[in-house]
Amino acid sequence: MNTIIKVIDRLFTKLEINNLGSSHKYRAACLIIEDALRKGSIIPGVTTVIEKTGGNFGFGLIAACHPYGIPVELVVGLGFSQAKRDLLECVGAQLIGKHLLLSGVSPKDVVSVHLENQVQLGKSYYYTDQFNNPIGIDAHRYQTASELACQLIDAGVGNKLLFVGCAGTGASFTGITLGLKEYGFDVSTVLVEPFGCDSKEGLFTDHRFEGMAVGVSPPFLDWSLVDRRSQVEHTEMLTAQGWFHQLTGIYIGYTAAACVSVAQRLISLPEYADTTCITIAYDAGFWYQN
């Protein structure tokens, strides 16, 4: 199990950066691949996995596919970190469609072009389609949340929790919240977004918080589970990232640091005086270019 650490009194972080692929996305990637293998949708030696991803889900797919010898082709939007793009290729993925992306074609449409022309390309693709694949919710509901609940019980925390998280697909936010509630915790939640973004209303601005407010309303986010929302400036996130590193020696990524920034604000409020705050270290910060 990926451990939780006590950052300060009543603030805990679960280190999902310790997963294979170095992020929480490995859980969904692994479950999706295992499900497709079981159903025969993926045949090792025949099938190539294809996905559009900003990085973390791609690393998860590479780790999940490698034991079966399944090649992975990824469409990575040009706005994402070049460091991530380079590393994805270094660890085994083939990045495809760059010329189409440069001409203005969206990552989704690049995938569609490849799927439509797979026979001519000599491919047999399986599209994991993380934004339309609900298996991701199960990965976090029955794995992440289950581990986290047991770890919190072992740590002796009280019943009242404040989960501060973010949403790309919304699968982790929804799955973790549902899972913790099913373990009997009294869970309140906060959805963190970059300053100027409102995912519910479909309002997005340019930002550097890869993995949240990704340009579409999170398809798997159950909005009835969101108790409050909070926005974070880039400079606030950087301050929280440095603070977390000084206390723990762990250099978390931008989305994780944004959630820590909000947790810092809220934990001192009187309404949360008897509440334990939980954040997720979704990934590490080394490949984010400031």
Automatic annotation (TrEMBL):
Gene3D superfamilies cross-referenced by the UniProt entry: 3.40.50.1100
Enzyme class: transferase
Pathways involved: Amino-acid biosynthesis; L-cysteine biosynthesis; L-cysteine from L-serine: step 2/2
Essential cofactor(s): pyridoxal 5'-phosphate
Protein name: cysteine synthase
Xref: SUPFAM superfamilies: Tryptophan synthase beta subunit-like PLP-dependent enzymes (SSF53686)
Keywords: Pyridoxal phosphate
Catalytic activity: O-acetyl-L-serine + hydrogen sulfide = L-cysteine + acetate
Lipid biosynthesis as UniProt keyword: no
Species: Pseudomonas helleri
EC number annotated for this UniProt entry: 2.5.1.47
One term of GO molecular function: cysteine synthase activity
Taxonomy, superkingdom: Bacteria
Residue stretches making up the Tryptophan synthase beta chain-like PALP domain: 10-277
Lineage, opening ranks: Bacteria, Pseudomonadati, Pseudomonadota, Gammaproteobacteria, Pseudomonadales
